């Protein structure tokens, strides 16, 4: 088996793991896992190995008895059953692979093609980074001399000029210091009028008027660019100024902890029967594992509601049932109050709600929608669980979908059976990754 075969086998196993993961989410027993460990049944075939045939215990030598003796009934083997013929009491061996939430999140990202990268919010440490920041003051050891030299060199190039050529211009017949100064300004030559006047005074009288016109001078005498002059003469002086001084300081890097609080809201009214409750658990449990795996610190809040809302623990959340009516806004009012313990500037927030989309009259429009808009969150999501199709008064999800149609932090998913669960999870998480 070569390297390519190994690679193909690796890919095959990876694809099988992701298929196992999807099947597990949709149809598996989620109760066998806990918050810190996910146990997924394995369907991968074991590699072949050699074993002795239990039916052939005698080997090639002669066994007991003589040739022609009748063969007796097969002897019982270990594990064939108890002596009294009752079924064995030991359980069979089931194969699982176990993954922590981080691994679960990685596998689900692969399965769904997601790229959610959580952002840290709460600053837990500040430390010095590379010396990239510059200030106008500081100790001499941090002076950025290279930058200061570059500033001086740029000034040198901007201020220097071909002095000999300007002296020749002063020899043009009829030109005096004023006309030469005006010409220099038009040519962007950084020369002062006092310098021109002093240079003019040094020209002997018999050399003044040596050129009949500027055109004659320009055609006869070649100007020397500053860069060529520097290459020829070298740099004898670079004008450095105090305003060019910059001192290097270390960049302050903030290390942030990736904190998340997940609020799970569930309708427990009389219409939420067993099959609907199971679909809520099958959708919300993988979301909890996923977000716990993505963040450094994850907190979970569980809210149950009928016409009123109350906080519950995780075990109660998926099993509780009441016989009351439904007012979904009561759950969001409680969520808003509980989230005060998790400031938005320090915590990432997810608010997930699920139910059969039945709500009291006008509560979605007048209560739920304004509360969703007022609660800052990375993502708001609602999951409708209606195994038998939409009831006549099951309009909550459609109203949310219509109102938040263009919002990139609100997801609405529909789960009518186990086959819809993975698609619903993808709908929710892809909305967050897009935002």
UniProtKB/TrEMBL annotation:
InterPro entries: UPF0229. Residues 80-89, 98-109 have a biased composition (Acidic residues). Residues 45-110 are annotated as: Disordered. This is YeaH/YhbH family protein. It comes from Natranaeroarchaeum sulfidigenes.
């Amino acid at each position: 088996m070569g390297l390519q075969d190994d690679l193909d086998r690796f890919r095959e196993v990876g694809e099988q793991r992701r298929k196992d993961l999807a099947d597990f989410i949709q149809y598996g027993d989620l109760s066998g896992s806990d918050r810190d460990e996910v146990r997924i049944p394995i369907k991968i075939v074991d590699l072949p190995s050699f074993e002795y045939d239990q039916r052939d215990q005698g080997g090639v030598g002669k066994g007991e008895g003589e040739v022609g003796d009748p063969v007796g009934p097969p002897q019982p083997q270990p594990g064939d059953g108890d002596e009294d013929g009752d079924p064995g009491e030991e359980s069979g061996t089931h194969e699982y692979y176990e993954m922590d939430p981080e691994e679960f999140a990685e596998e689900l990202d692969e399965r769904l093609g997601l790229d959610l990268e959580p952002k840290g919010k709460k600053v837990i440490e500040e430390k010095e980074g590379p010396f990239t920041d510059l200030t106008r003051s500081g100790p001499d050891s941090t002076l950025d001399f290279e930058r200061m030299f570059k500033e001086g060199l740029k000034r040198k190039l901007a201020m220097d000029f071909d002095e000999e050529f300007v002296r020749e211009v002063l020899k043009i017949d009829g030109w005096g210091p004023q006309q030469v100064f005006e010409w220099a300004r038009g040519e962007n030559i950084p020369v002062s009028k006092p310098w021109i006047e002093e240079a003019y005074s040094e020209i002997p009288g018999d050399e003044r008027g040596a050129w009949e016109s500027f055109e004659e001078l320009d055609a006869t005498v070649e100007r020397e660019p500053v860069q060529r002059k520097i290459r020829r003469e070298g740099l004898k002086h670079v004008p450095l100024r105090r305003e060019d001084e910059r001192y290097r300081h270390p960049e302050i890097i903030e290390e942030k902890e990736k904190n998340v609080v997940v609020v799970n809201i569930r309708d427990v009214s009389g219409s939420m029967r067993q099959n609907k409750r199971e679909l809520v658990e099958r959708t919300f449990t993988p979301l909890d594992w996923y977000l716990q795996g993505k963040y450094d610190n994850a907190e979970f809040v569980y809210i149950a509601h009928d016409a009123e809302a109350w906080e519950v623990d995780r075990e109660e959340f998926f099993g509780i049932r009441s016989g009351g009516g439904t007012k979904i806004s009561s759950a969001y009012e409680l969520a808003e109050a509980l989230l005060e313990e998790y400031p938005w500037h320090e915590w990432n927030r997810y608010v997930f709600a699920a139910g059969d989309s039945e709500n009291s009259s006008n509560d979605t429009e007048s209560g739920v929608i304004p509360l969703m808009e007022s609660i800052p969150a990375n993502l708001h999501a609602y999951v409708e669980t209606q195994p038998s199709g939409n009831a006549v008064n099951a309009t909550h999800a459609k109203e949310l979908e219509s109102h938040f149609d263009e919002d990139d932090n609100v997801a609405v998913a529909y789960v009518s059976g186990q086959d819809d669960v993975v698609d619903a999870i993808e709908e929710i998480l892809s909305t967050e990754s897009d935002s």
